[in-house]
């Protein structure tokens, strides 16, 4: 679990390191290509099966939202949004997931859950405004918030698939689809490489190996051996790890208003998770 959390936290910092050398699309494709290659090598040893044609539409949706869409939106937002702030915005994802599950999967949300969702949105809006000048919302912060929505869509769309496939299988399918979707941007990635610094290239490779491959693998391992509540609640540590790592590596600071908004949002996420959901 510690390995997974550190990998997830480092991802936000590594994106900031990689961006000066790569375009948004080039960084997205590079990360997905590295992760796809590693997963393709591991797939035969971990028993990854060929998916059923009946599930292809949902799998494509996972790749579009959770891999291609999430990567592009997050990378675009982190051009100006610090790593710790981006992490706090992305971690409002469970709020969006709860609303989407209510609409698409008919999952009930209790009164406490709705209060948590409202707090989560208030916190997210506070963070977004704290990034701009004169109390105007930051466009890049809105892109990161859109990335959180894309990731939440992925979690909701993949849920029915987990009744038929392992978490690693679904991650493989989504990553491969995401890489195929981003494949048309390959010329841009190849154009970025000659001018990119060694640090930027190393950050892209790390993003593919660390957060995308090792992070998801160790996360799945922990999920299989610990209670769900224990595993999911540890995700609250990721923003604070990102803030610390960003401060050490990039000398980034975080606006106090954004930090306050992040605490409100994370409190809302915690409350919504205890809001008592049930199948309608």
Give the distance, in angstroms, between the N- and C-terminal Cα atoms: 33 Å
Radius of gyration: 18 Å
SSE sequence, one letter per element: HHHHHHHHHHHHH
C-alpha geometry: globular
Q: Structural class given helices, strands, pairing?
A: mainly alpha
Uncertain runs are 276-280
Main beta-sheet strand count, sense and barrel state: none
Strand content: under 5%
List its traits.
mainly alpha; 280 residues; 0% strand; globular
Overall description:
- With 280 residues, the protein is an all-alpha fold.
- It is built from 13 helices and no strands.
- The two termini are 33 Å apart.
- It has helices at 2-18, 24-42, 56-77, 83-90, 93-104, 111-130, 139-158, 167-182, 186-192, 198-225, 228-233, 237-250, 256-273.
């Amino acid at each position: 679990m510690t390995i997974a959390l550190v990998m997830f936290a480092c991802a936000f910092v590594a994106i900031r390191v990689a961006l000066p050398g790569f375009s948004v699309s080039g960084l997205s494709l590079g990360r997905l290509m590295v992760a796809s290659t590693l997963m393709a090598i591991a797939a035969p040893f971990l028993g990854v099966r060929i998916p059923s044609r009946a599930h292809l539409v949902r799998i494509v949706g996972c790749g579009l939202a959770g891999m291609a869409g999430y990567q592009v939106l997050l990378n675009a937002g982190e051009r100006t949004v610090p790593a710790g702030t981006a992490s706090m915005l992305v971690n409002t994802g469970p709020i969006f997931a709860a609303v989407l599950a209510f609409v698409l999967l008919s999952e009930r949300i209790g009164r406490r859950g709705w209060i948590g969702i409202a707090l989560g949105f208030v916190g997210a809006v506070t963070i977004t405004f704290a990034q701009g000048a004169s109390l105007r919302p930051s466009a890049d912060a809105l892109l990161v918030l859109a990335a959180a929505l894309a990731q939440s869509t992925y979690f909701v769309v993949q849920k029915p698939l987990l009744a038929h496939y392992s978490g690693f299988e679904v991650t493989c399918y989504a990553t491969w689809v995401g890489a195929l979707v981003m494949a048309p941007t390959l010329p841009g990635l190849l154009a970025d490489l000659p001018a990119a610094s060694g640090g930027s290239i190393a950050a892209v490779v790390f993003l593919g190996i660390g957060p995308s491959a090792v992070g998801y693998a160790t996360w799945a391992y922990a999920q299989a051996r610990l209670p769900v509540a224990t595993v999911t609640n540890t995700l609250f540590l990721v923003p604070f790890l990102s803030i610390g790592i960003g401060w050490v590596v990039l000398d980034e600071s975080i606006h106090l208003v954004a930090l306050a908004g992040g605490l409100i949002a994370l409190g809302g996420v915690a409350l919504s998770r205890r809001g008592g959901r049930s199948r309608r």
